[in-house]
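Please check both lines for our workbook:

___
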Amino acid sequence: MKFLRDKIDQIKKPFEKGQKFEKFAPAINALDTFLYVPNHTTKHGAHIRDAVDLKRTMITVVLALIPALIFGIYNAGYQHFIQIEGSDMSFGNLFFHGLWKVLPMIIVSYAVGLGIEFAFAIFRGHEVNEGYLVSGLLIPMVMPVDLPLWMLAISVAFAVIIGKEAFGGTGMNIFNPALLARAFAFFAYPTFMSGDKIWVSDATTIDGVSGETILGALANGKELPAQWDFWNSFIGLIPGSVGETSVLAILIGAFVLIATGVGSWKIMVSGVVGAALTAMMFNAVGLTALMNFDWTNHLVVGGFAFGIVFMATDPVSAAQTDKGKIIYGLLIGFFSIMIRVFNPAYPEGVMLAILLMNTLAPTIDYFVVNGNIAKRKRRLAQSKQLKSA
């Protein structure tokens, strides 16, 4: 490790203050801080010191995403080959087909996103933030497996420039960048982001291969195949975006986030409760196929589980107060099911629900904080009255 440390210090010399390439120091410093803890500390004021920094937080989220990513790669191959007679259904064949499809998406996402972040850091003269470590993996995981790479690149560029850097960079954005990338792709390229032929690898090019999701089939009034039952949906052997199908893998990630204190269990639990209660209400009405769809199934299909664990809990765009997090999560669950049931053109609601609540999160916190202030003022007034009596 000392050899690596010495080598990096040697490489950094031309980028130091007053040297020839000083302007490009943020780019080379990003490599240093990715491998090592920053070697500078604060000099003034009172500070709480601990071992948690942005880099460790982002890497924790990346580790929590790995189970869903690995299963998503496998499922991409499984959904492709299960529909082709005489296919080799060995684990290796399925996994490597999925890897062949998903890996280029991850590479493009990181190359474009980090390239833009490096350019903005050099232009503004500040260090590169580690926030895109998570967004760069999230974006491919919420996209269809066959989305053209150039569309993915444009969606990433929009999310980073308009959704993040325009607000000042990591920690200043009001919308979740990964969801903003998906929303841009959905509205800019709707035929590549919705329909019955896009959610399974090569479904648009191979006859007899269907690429339809459960929610899409229900919205079109179709009967669901027997293999699309609760347990297959929970395990993840259903069509969908790369990382959203396996609730089991997502729950492993949720445990990691909660155990490390990175993700808010209040948002996760309240989101599930909000969705379950809303779906139960529609089950009682039962006028359409989506209303009759059992509330337990609503929790395990589509992007709801992935969204509520990895998107709704984004510490930047979510509510910050404890009571606000509960309200925020409940409303995300409520709107997710509402959009699913009443929008047949887009029977997946969690993306729009989270983006809507990203907008309202500061307002929720404002009323929670002011409510607490008002309660304290009332208690103080009552205390003064008692003393004067």
User: Anything to note?
Assistant: The CA atoms of residues 21 and 259 lie 43 Å apart. The radius of gyration is 23 Å.
